[in-house]
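Treating backbone geometry as a discrete language has practical consequences that deserve illustration. Part of our work consisted of pairing the sequence of a single chain with a tokenised description of its backbone. What the numbers capture is local backbone geometry rather than side-chain detail. For completeness, the protein is quoted in full, as a sequence line and a line of structure tokens:
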Amino acid sequence: MELGGRWFAVLSVVRVTIDAVDKMRQLRIAKDAMDRDWADPGLDLDAVAAHAGYSRYHFIRAFKAAYGETPGQYLTHRRIERAEDLLRTANLTVTEICHLVGFSSLGTFSARFKSWTGLTPSEYRAKHVGRGAALIPGCYAMLWAGGFRPGAGARDSNSGEAR
């Protein structure tokens, strides 16, 4: 009977380890989705939690236990890091950058940016621009970042003259 008890203990440890690895894999899948779609303002907690196969509340707890911050904090930090890069390198307005990195409100963007960096976006740009290469023209930065989206009345052709 002693041998059977040891095998049960070993199998229990193996199962716990596999469960923990599987849970981390599920959280990584959700984190990868946030890393891929960080600029999408429609990215919401329910969609990200679904990638991990969790309810939104269980996902928040599991994500924070694994990564030390909530999914919302992680996504905000990713967006702010990208905004820092654009403020240093692109000739875009703060409002354009705000929308490119996935914020729908300039006020929220500015407040979160300041709490993360200690500077407003304009102060950050003034401090860091001029320390290297010239700014990338805004039209190229917008095209690269996917900022140009056809409007509701946009057609596939240019002016239609060559029909």
User: Anything to note?
Assistant: The chain has a mean pLDDT of 78. The beta strands are 90-91, 136-137. The first strand starts at residue 90 and ends at 91.
